[in-house]
Amino acid sequence: MIKKRFISMLVLLAAVATGAWAQTETLLTTITATAKEQASYSTANVATVSFSYTAGGSSAYLANWGWWGYGWIATVTAAEGYTITKCIFYDDANRTATDSEAPFVVETTEEDKTPRINGTPIDGGNNWSKGIKKIEVYGYVTPTTVDVTLADGTDDATSWQGKAGEGEYQALPLTGLEAGTAVTVKYNGTKKVKSVKAKKKQ
Description:
Layout: H1 2-21, E1 26-35, E2 38-41, E3 47-62, E4 66-78, E5 82-91, E6 96-99, E7 104-107, E8 116-117, E9 120-121, E10 123-124, E11 127-128, E12 132-141, E13 145-148, E14 160-164, E15 167-169, E16 174-178, E17 183-187
Antiparallel strand pairs: 1-2, 1-12, 3-4, 4-7, 5-6, 5-12, 8-9, 10-11, 13-16, 14-15, 14-17
């Protein structure tokens, strides 16, 4: 009985974590400033950038500076099905600043058009930044479904029982579960269980 409870807890923790720890960070898209509040995307429908302003804020676009102005805020947001892990912001001289925590924002003040990431200005000593020319967006595709299956060669499928979300099941495999669903697995058969592993769905 102790062994069965341990297996159930192990798989529950692994199944809940699978959606996050199994992902590989990649460059999802590059956003390049093309006009005021407008951009081109190296890969479309992955992320968007939106603008907001302080009371006295305004923005414009210059080919050599990109987006510039005073008191503007640009926020990068993932499209449905994607998760952003970091954004690298490039200024007018290709100096960079990285933001690795949401919300992914670059902003200026009403007094200074130097772009700031988490309150820190991008600058090059005496050559202050004036605008943002492009943004690299990194992250991964968010899984929408997961499967719970037995390893090849396992012949005791009806002895694995437990809960998936709010429901119960009497045998494996389980397919098409919504990503992030908590799954408990308990073995009720007579064989000795050597190990239980959670693997990313390919």
